[in-house]
Design a protein that fits this description.
Largest sheet: 9 strands, mixed
Strand order of the largest sheet: 14-13-12-11-7-10-9-8-15
Radius of gyration: 20 Å
Number of strands: 15
Order of helices and strands: EHEHEHEHEHEHEHHEEEEEEEHHE
Helix content: 25-40%
Strand content: 25-35%
Distance between the termini: 30 Å
Bound molecules: NADPH dihydro-nicotinamide-adenine-dinucleotide phosphate, 1,5-anhydro-D-fructose
């Protein structure tokens, strides 16, 4: 089988996990890594001697032996570097949030179309054996028409990130774009059969009086076409990492949970229960799930898309929708009013 060659830009906490995932994936090579500081470059050289390490990502983009470039950078750098990747004629795997505003998202969608390159966004949780089983049961009609989705996360505070970027509102955008963005993506995914998200009403608060913009507690209600609704709620003031999904439909309901010492543990606990309105059954989930596992599946998914034309799980269109929902939620937090979600006139694929 042809080997798909990856370049990686960003070798921080999550970039290292991407590098591991690329190394662990069959028929995929990690050809080059672009890091930043000398310390990060040295860490990359030590851990991945098989890859060539550069301190300027533009050198990586000049190579003609790279098929896919994986961008795992602080969020304010996503648009600029991703645009350079697409203009260099490479396929792109871009971490979430796709960009910090919708104009930048639209620019990347246009560049991907212009250069006929793949654009995938890192909503890897869609590949989870647990969360995708929920989707499968909905699609099979087990709960009838889905009407209500709850996605809840209670976790420990965010990491600072290199040079503190995650706690700097200009570089992170807002904290809804950090983790709740995955859950807005879930809400839209699970309710795909009923229609598009229309409006969001949200509220949030901070533990730090001198940093009201860094909001630890966040809750939102999203209304969809056809009357369905989703609740996305998160606190960063909890211990460990505990996530719940509940979906209720006209005939039945689902309850899934995932818990671990932290988000990227390799030893989580998880379950899925389903009711058809009469009885409750436990649905076995055989395959291990957690963001580090899904990362490996995401790399394999990209390679299969490049090699065999297989579909992407989350496209740039999905990435844009997620950013649009988060930005509307941030605006609602600010104004105290419901806000219409910008659909960009994109089809809900
Ligand atoms: N999908 C998911 O589940 C997750 C997604 N993410 C996303 O991944 C991205 C990265 O997060 P994370 O790894 O936690 O952040 P980190 O701060 O840990 O890492 C960012 C890295 O980017 C490097 N960097 C900065 N500028 C450049 C540049 N010009 N060229 C190359 N490298 C550069 C920094 O290098 P140096 O330190 O040397 O300056 C640092 O190592 C974010 O967008 C985040 O939202 C994160 C976690 C999970
Ligand atoms: O899923 C995630 C885990 O937490 C990180 C923050 O610490 C987020 O950036 C990320 O999206």
């Amino acid at each position: 089988m042809a080997v798909t060659k990856f370049g990686l830009i960003g070798f921080g906490a999550w970039g290292k996990c991407h590098a591991e995932a690329i190394r662990n994936t069959a028929d995929v090579d990690l050809v080059a890594i672009a890091a930043n500081s000398e310390a990060s470059c040295q860490a990359a050289r030590d851990a991945f001697p098989e890859a060539s390490v550069v301190a300027d990502y533009r050198e990586l983009l000049k190579r003609d032996d790279i098929d896919v470039v994986d961008v795992v950078l602080p969020s304010h750098l996503h648009h600029r570097v991703a645009a350079d990747v697409l203009n260099a004629g490479k396929h792109l795997l871009l971490e979430k949030p796709m960009c910090l505003n919708l104009a930048e998202c639209d620019d990347l969608l246009q560049l991907a179309a212009k250069h006929k390159r793949l654009l995938a966004v890192g909503h890897e949780l869609r590949l989870s054996s647990l969360w995708s089983r929920v989707k499968q049961l909905i699609d099979e009609g087990f709960i009838g028409t889905p009407q209500y989705v709850l996605v809840e996360l209670s976790r420990n505070p965010y990491r600072q990130g290199s040079d503190g970027w995650r706690y700097d509102i200009d570089r992170v955008g807002n904290w809804i774009l950090e983790e709740p963005i995955h859950f807005f993506d879930f809400a839209r995914w699970y309710l795909q059969s009923v229609g598009d998200p229309q409006t969001v009403f949200a509220s949030a608060n901070s533990r730090q009086p001198n940093h009201p913009e860094l909001q630890d507690n966040f809750s939102a209600i999203v209304k969809f076409d056809g009357g369905a609704q989703a609740v996305v709620t998160q606190t960063l003031s909890m211990f460990e990492h505990h996530q719940t999904v509940k979906v209720a439909g006209t005939k039945g309901s689902l309850w899934a949970g995932w818990s671990g010492a932290m988000d990227r543990t390799r030893h989580p606990h998880f379950f899925l229960k389903a009711s058809d309105g009469q009885s409750v059954k436990e649905i076995p989930i055989e395959k291990m799930t957690g963001e580090v596992f899904e990362l490996e599946d995401q790399i394999a998914m990209l390679a299969a898309a490049v090699r065999d034309g297989k579909p992407l799980t989350t496209t740039g269109v999905d990435g844009r929708w997620s950013v649009a929902m988060c930005l509307a939620a941030a605006e609602s937090v600010q104004s105290g009013l419901p806000v219409v979600i910008d659909n960009g006139n994109q089809p809900n694929d």
